Model the fold of this input.
Amino acid sequence: MYTQAMDLAPKEERKAVRSAEEAMLEARFEARIDAGEFIEAKDWMPEHYRRTLVRQISQHAHSEIVGMLPEGNWITRAPTLARKAILLAKVQDEGGHGLYLYAAAETLGTRRDEMVAALHGGKAKYSSIFNYPTLSWADVGVIGWLVDGAAIMNQVPLTRCSYAPYARAMVRICREESFHQRQGFDSLLAMMQGGTDEQRAMVQDAVDRWWWPSLMMFGPPDGQSTHGAQSARWGIKRFSNDELRQKFVDAAAEQAKVLGVTLPDPLLKWNEARGHHDFGPIDWSEFQRVVAGHGPCNRERLAARVKAWEEGAWVREAALAHARKRALGEKAA
Amino acid sequence: MTMSDEWPLWEVFVRPKAGLDHRHCGSLHAADAKMALELAREVYTRRQEGVSLWVVRSSDITASDPGDKDMYFDPMADKVYRHPTFYQLPDAVDHM
Done:
């Protein structure tokens, strides 16, 4: 899954005054970026690059972890044992993705517990998509198809981003994410083709609710995206929000036909001249509301994370105490 | 739990299949080596990515300094005679 929130943090001022040495290091860094080289953890990098990456990667990690909640909601209620096993594997993957990403962010010198504290304190954002509820089993399929589909479009370019530990984590994530989208589509197909009218209506209802929030996952329109230009230069971002959104709409419009559902946009139409689908305006005020903390589930999601962290404290402490005791025992022996 | 009580960091190495080297694949936090191995299995080999795992405390790794990269590795750049392709041999024996 994915975060778009990186585009929403306040723009940080770049330091105006730099020493001669710093200017030289920065010129060398920029030359490496321009040559398409990868930057490794211990390489010199400008502070602004480091901060941008920490914010983006940690928010991406938070999104994976919070993203376990909406679907985790259905594990005990999956309709068959096979679907339950699949959903368990998927939710476990999301947890794994969060861990790869936290580890990548830690290579930049930020501690894991600082990042977790920023999430729990409400300072760090996660993808606003996870602040919507999963009301029926069809939501699980639609999340796979649309939400993970949008995430893949966003994430594939990141496998070539300039910061190597992030790029490597993204390679692994993208390899696994494809299963997420396919299992979702497969589950929806089963309902649409082999299901009852009621089940088909359930799928359509889920599509109606998730379509617009999925389009918002690509972030604000290009003109309003605060970090776009700098991030593009650094190869942290290789396609603009609007380019990726268009690509997603084009793909989803065709997939919807195969599925037999209608996308809830009366203006959605193939435009022969553009070679793309036209689509209706996005309600950005809703997006801003959800990002600001007023979505349907913001409080519930954060409360669930904080509760899990606090109730797990004794386990973390006990494991550490046990490890210390054993280490002492080995020394004594 | 205070900040200093974070579980230590471990580096994970996976051998993809018999006959290949262990390769670094990422890191994770764990209280001790046994837990690091168990977590490495869950985090890095959910799809049979490996047949063997190594875990090493990150703090136990000594690494070369990227700042010394040129000094360390560039002296080999002008030693082309270390490569077999440096030697031009007659066609009759060039498969050597």
About this structure: Residues 14 and 53 of chain B are 5 Å apart (CA to CA). The longest helix of chain B spans residues 33-44. Helices of chain B lie at 33-44, 69-73.
